[in-house]
Amino acid sequence: MRKISMAAVTATAAAVALLASAGGASALAASGARQPGPDGGLARFEQQKITWHDCRTGPDDAIGAQLEAAGARCAEVTVPLDHARPDGPAIEVAISRLRATDPGRRRGALLINPGGPGDPGRIYAPLLKATMPTLAARYDLIGMDPRFTGRSTPLNCHWPIGDYVRSTGHDRRGFDRIAAQAQDLASRCAGLREMLPHASARATARDMDLIRAALGEPKLSYLGGSYGTYLGAVYMQLFPARADRFVLDSALDPAAAGPGYARPMGPYLAKALKEWAGWAARHHGRYRLGSTTARVLATVGRIDRAAARTPLRIGRYRVDTHVFPAILLLSLGRDSEQAYAALAADLQVLDDAARGAEITSAPSLEEGLAYLSSPETDGAGSARMAITCADGPASRDVDAYYRDIQAHRADEPLFGPLTRAMNLPCAFWPASAAEPPTRIRNDVPALIVGASGDPKTPYPGQRAMHRALSGSRMVTVRGAFRHLVSGVFTATRNACVDDAVGRYLLDGVLPAEDTVCADAPAR
Q1: 289's torsion region: left (phi>0), alpha (psi -120 to 50) or beta?
Q2: CA-only gyration radius of the chain, Å
Q3: Contact, 221 vs 109, CB < 8 A?
């Protein structure tokens, strides 16, 4: 067993490239080499001794400092790069732990995953303790940076942009420009071919089970949000006897996981945008975006058309037709008064720029533009794409993406060119997944919570997860246009949801039937 390093990845790239040219994962699968095997060979991982230590890695480690201030301890758990080859290279997965504050009533370990895919999760142990202290009393809270993210053997392709969230624009020329960018980004990951096939939810779920074993826990409880719901469902499918109490917040359609997960979002983003536009119309005196919902939406359209003609100058950044829909995407999914006001303020600036005003500074807007435009430093964007591409097949026919956009351009004019090509780098990805995606179909008990107007994991997909997990119950916040509804993941708390989550995790009691919670609107 050896731990893999970036140097080792580089050294083996030529050999792996030769393997890929000879058929890659499919050739290995045909030989049986990558077929998932029994637990044999994993004993040394399951029985490893966890060494807990200070979470801080240096004076500039802000997350480590927050963890330390909360009383957390951190560790690295060694796992196989390829779980089907436990004697091959190994990697490290970073975790944090807050011990149960009432050890006499402790009932186990609760792992938290915020989604992403690929968002680091170590900081969520103290966040959950702060928002739901009754859970912190009964559980050891475990945060985890999933493999290849955060401090877990990070995967970094050194992309020149922070994240790949781009619209393909209004025409074929714009589509070709974004496709060329996607191809370039994918090519920058070619040197990491040894890691890329093993970035999937299946691999991370197996890491979770080794963490469970190393902690000495017979079962694992779980709270996952967004993409983390799919990760939790995969764990339930692979390890049903070891899944204790699982809560899934804003569930992803399990059949849509992988490169196509964003395709259904367009109509639901449009509905969320319309809901916000109604709020902005009621605050026309402050933001001057339009006195009716229709007029506010017309302002949004005018900004988009202006950005398509000539990029809008916002300080040192430029907002073009590829970036403007991404700004909306990043803002929608939060429906509090504060979030709505922030989006209105940003669009007020963009509307001024579209009218020809010189915008020298717009701090809030520039922060989002920096995220989209600045070179990545920690690999978060490329790691997220690696996970997405490993979770399911992607068409290699680039024209198929354009045909899909064109077929929906009339009914999804603003968001279709964004969501239907959200993961276009997967069309050029330099490695294939080590194994096929997981088919979710089991009766393990679980609690699913979400909002009926969620624009990022649309409600029909949440219902699909509910059907796939036939032992689950569902709690829905009716009339809410937010993504993520439980206390640890959102500032817009809902007592009905938090009560259901707490009752299940503390007492093991699921609702007798699916439940609807009233929204407590801040609007």
Answers
A1: alpha
A2: 23
A3: yes
Q: Residue 251 corresponds to which amino acid?
A: A
- Return the C-alpha torsion angle 203, 205, 211, 215, nearest 10: -160
CB 269 within 8 A of CB 239: no
pLDDT by residue (tens digit) across 459-499?
999 999 999 999 999 999 999 999 999 999 998 889 999 99
Residue 12 DSSP SS3? helix
Q: What is the mean pLDDT of residues 503-521?
A: 92
* Preceding amide of 59 cis, omega within 30: no
The answer to whether 207 and 215 have CB atoms below 8 angstroms apart is no
* CA 292 – CA 390 distance, rounded (Å): 44
The sign of the dihedral angle between the CA atoms of 408, 437, 94, 482 is positive
CB atoms within 10 A of CB 357: 12
Which backbone phi and psi does 219 adopt, to 5 degrees?
Answer: -140, 165
DSSP 152: S
Mean pLDDT of 163-188: 96
pLDDT in tens, 406-431: 999 999 999 999 999 999 999 999 99
Q: Which residues contact 70 (CB under 8 A, 6 or more apart)?
A: 98, 125, 126, 129, 130
377's CB contacts (< 8 A; 6+ apart) are none
Determine the Cα–Cα distance for residues 114 and 96; give it in Å rounded to an integer. 14
Residue 37 pLDDT level (bands cut at 50, 70, 90): very low
Question: Does position 128 have pLDDT exceeding 80, yes or no?
Answer: yes
**Residue matched to tokens 């907002």:** 319
Specify the pairing of strand 89-98 against strand 139-144.
Answer: antiparallel
Do the beta carbons of residue 466 and residue 520 sit within 8 Å? no
C-alpha to C-alpha distance for 298 and 287, rounded to whole angstroms: 14
Q: According to DSSP H, which parts of 22-61 are helical?
A: 24-31, 43-46
Residue in this structure with the two tokens 């995220």, named with its chain if needed: 371
CA 138 to chain centre: 27
Q: Average pLDDT for residues 173-189, to the nearest whole number?
A: 97
Q: Beta strands 73-80 and 108-113: pairing type? A: unpaired
Per-residue model confidence as pLDDT tens digits over 58-88: 999 999 999 999 999 999 999 999 999 999 9
- Three-class DSSP labels, 390-451: HCCCCCCCHHHHHHHHHHCCCCCCCCHHHHCCCCHHHHHCCCCCCCCCCCCCECCCEEEEEE
Contacts of 382 (CB under 8 A, 6+ apart): 155, 156, 157, 158, 159, 185, 188, 189, 376
| pTM more than 0.85 | yes
- Nearest-CA neighbor of 108 among 74, 142, 67? 142
Strands 472-478 and 515-518: parallel
Burial class of residue 414, CB neighbours in 10 A (0-12, 13-18, 19+): buried
Running DSSP on this structure, what letter comes out for residue 66? H
